Amino acid sequence: MIHEFAVTEDVSEDIPEEEAVCRICFIELSEGGETLKMECSCKGELALAHKECAVKWFSIKGNKRCDVCKQEVRNLPVTLLRLQNNQTVRRHAAYATHRQQVAQYRILQDVPILVMVSMLAYFCFLEQLLVSELGPHALAISLPFACVLGLLASMIASTMVSQSYIWAYASFQFALVILFAHVFYSVLGVSPVFSILLSSFTGFGISISMNSLLIEYLRWRARRNLRSTQLNQSQQQNEARNLAGVEDGGDTRQQDLENQIQDPNPLQHGQNHS
């Protein structure tokens, strides 16, 4: 069986290129274009293919690895692989642009909804707060202030935080505004208009300040982690250098000992020569 396999392999290597078949399209090489003998571990007919077929096949794969011998084909056209890489880069760039456009579309879609929800929430709260004392006249105060506060709160939320945290930030702003509005109007007895103005400035100011403090804390934490990582890397490098110095010193001492063993009394050795 071994001899038969060797004979078969030799026969397959001796097949003329005109009679061989392309390993990719299974059409005779004489009927196609230029023949490419792939420089990998494949032998005989397995290494022969149409150059155009090989270019298309390895372009689809995106690498140089042969499917039969699992080795890299060394004589593939370089321009092909560069073209493939350029196409991949363009595809990734187009995908990133598409994702950015989708994110912008989502933001533009969420902001109008946030504006309407904020206006409705502020209107309900102000109407409930003022209707007990002002009666029907509460509508004249709550409606314009609700529109202004809803629009302002939505603009601040979309500007200060990312798209994932817009609703959480807007809810936090709303909670602060209604809290201080209740304190100024019900507890301190401030007039309705001034209560709304003071609560708006206070609530928006506190939310903006807390957001800025949180951002600065996260930046400081990131810088601290980076410094600790760099310090650990420098310590590891110093330890590696110290170990290398100790090993070099040990080798030097060992060499000195070997020299002393080979020549235990250099003075006597010099007298003998004299």
Automatic annotation (TrEMBL):
Would the keyword Nucleotidyltransferase turn up in this protein's UniProt record?
no
Q: Which CDD domains match?
A: RING_CH-C4HC3_MARCH
Coiled-coil residues are none
Q: Which InterPro entries match?
A: Znf_RING-CH (IPR011016), Znf_RING/FYVE/PHD (IPR013083)
Composition bias of kind Polar residues appears in 231-240, 257-274
Please state every residue range assigned to the domain named RING-CH-type. 14-76
Q: Which domain of life is it from?
A: Eukaryota
For this protein, what is any one GO molecular function term?
Answer: zinc ion binding
**Region annotation (Disordered) ranges:** 231-274
Record-annotated membrane-spanning stretches? 111-131, 137-158, 165-188, 194-218
Q: Which PROSITE patterns match?
A: ZF_RING_CH (PS51292)
Keywords of the record: Membrane, Metal-binding, Transmembrane, Transmembrane helix, Zinc, Zinc-finger
Q: What name does UniProt use for this protein?
A: RING-CH-type domain-containing protein
